[in-house]
Design a protein that fits this description.
Layout: H1 3-15, E1 23-31, E2 37-44, E3 47-53, H2 63-82, H3 88-101, H4 107-120, E4 128-129, H5 130-146, H6 154-175
Parallel strand pairs: 1-4
Antiparallel strand pairs: 1-2, 2-3
Helix pairs in contact: 2-5, 2-6, 3-4, 4-5
Amino acid sequence: MGLEEEIADAHALAAGYAEAREELVGVVPAEPAGIRIYLCAYQRDGVETWLAIDGEGTPVAERALVRDAVSIAALCELAEESAGGGDLAQLRASLAQLRETEAPEGIEAAEDAARELEESILSPPRLASIEYLDTIGRAAGTLEEALGESASSPFAAAMKNGLAAAEELSARVEGSYKVPLSG
């Protein structure tokens, strides 16, 4: 079964946990520590609630597992948005123009690295996982090295700054979770 089918199945299972007038507005697949989790967002009258379910549709009640799933999903999204400066199509166009006008040494390597980074970012739906995050991170690092940004990594700085947002989202999810959390 493909990821789209898995998400559709999880959506159907998660819909059963919606309360009166509450709408299931999103399902995000995540795989913290090799365990497939579906983060489900609900909304009623502008108020959000959350539930994480496993592949059988059973609510996840382990606080650490929910927190890890939310964190990896948030960090993967941040990595996609910030890799290569956030606009890889524009970066690639700029590199191509630079190659045509000035042809600096190493421009082909930078273009190759930008293309590889763009290819490493999967189109939705995608599974948020540590492996996916590492793939983007490696490709972003290769691009930064090719661009001569070896002293400090803009990608690493963006990820570090994004940790606070991921923690804030985790706290929001925990604070509006549909079932009691343990641990």
